[in-house]
Amino acid sequence: MADRVYFFDTTLRDGEQAPGYSMNLEEKIKIAKQLEALGVDIIEAGFAISSPGDKESVTAIAGAIKNCTVASLARALKKDIDAAYDAVKHAVSPRIHLFLATSDLHLQYKLKMSREEALERIKENVRYASSLCSNVEFSLEDATRTDLDYMCRVVELAIKEGATTVNLPDTVGYSTPDEIAHMVSYVRNHVPNVDKAILSMHCHNDLGLAVSNSMAGVVAGARQIECTLCGIGERAGNAAMEELAMLMHTRPDLYPYQNNIVTTEITRSARLLSSTTGVKINPSKAIVGQNAFAHESGIHQHGVMANSKTYEIMTPESVGLTQTNLVLGKHSGQHAFTKKLVELGYDLPKEDVDRLFSEFKKLTDRKKTISDRDIIALVESTEDVKSQLWTLDNFVVNSGNHMTATACITLKKGEKLYQEVAAGTGPVYAALRTVEKIIRHPFSLEDYQLQAVTEHRDALGEVLVKISDNNGVFRGRGVSTDVIEASILACLNAVNKMLDENSSGMRTGESAMKMSFENDMLMGHTDKTEEK
Description:
This protein is of the alpha/beta class. The protein is 42% helix and 20% strand. It has an eight-stranded parallel β-barrel, surrounded by seven helices. The chain is globular and about 75 Å long. The two termini are 43 Å apart. 42% of the residues are buried.
């Protein structure tokens, strides 16, 4: 198995730390199950000690996943290790992933400890973690700025104390492929027990080299890659899982490594991430961007029509992007609609298909021809409908350049109708103020995005909103041929999540607690009493 490369996905931990990508428990489980279908080997489910919510999500994912290893991150502290193990211990294959910075820069200014003190901390805590769990990963934070001889001492010690995987991360995205290759080769040639553990790469993308650096590490002998869907993560993000997988798939002559990734699940995984977080994929994003297989240049189009290999180095089908000729319209039946959903990669229960078909029929009254992108937008905007408390019954908005915009909206809750009127500086603001009056729960609009799903005058308008209250930030999505209606639907989608979160008893201080913890972690603050 020397040529086997393991994919360690940290979308739900490092990826979720990126602004705009936070997810609730249900969303994390959905992403985790898709990662399992994608074939990743290890899912890093979160940082159990950071908040009660994080520990709950790690525990839930550990119970839901059957075919992957589930890991929780921990600092090199016994209380962190205990929390991590408690969260993953019931997983089919649990892993504790602990870390400590090893560069002189971090040791001096962040941790305020000597090299020898760091070695003692590593020895004690890796040994403790391995006494709880047979699968332990140790990461040398800021490895690429760590003295190589000291690095070898750390790696040898971690393996001796029970680490089965040792990660050499480029934490700040500073290194180049040549430097990464030299570092990995140096460790392999100077650590006597290196054959007893797997070396791993975790590269950030600050200089745009995360994928190149990861593959340089693999060529030099690393056999685990830590990555995220679409490369999401702190600052400029991480190595993109789909790029790494398709690089090996497309260039086996240079990278003849086996892996477990099901490439036909890549597009579905990226779409799920985008629909879950409300963050759009860059159209020019490699592999999964909207333009990845689009050809506008006449020369390119002529070449592709003659032979697709002239300008396509991989097929759309290889990443799960299906090309169909099935056109849906007003007279299409549910059988054709269901077939289209399957072709687009959606495997939905019958009740969801029935609900979506009803929404599809309403859309055909407004739009003559329905495109694949319309169907995708419809699925993504209504997937939370079962949990919605408030639904839209009707609305009337008046607006003009010499008048104050007003909105009269009727919402339905159960069998009762509630109506209010409000004014605002524009039709969308007036509509959202009206919703706020009806639900009697104040919220702030943090972000609003409007874009056309398709072309032409009857295009669907897709609205993405972020609202907040004292308990956190909530995303909503709505689509309609009427952009005001799409705005109201997006607001209601977010409002229902907000009210559901409040009714579930989420502690108001949890988000603040997690933020405080993360600040302490970055500054190197620890519980000195427990350490002693």
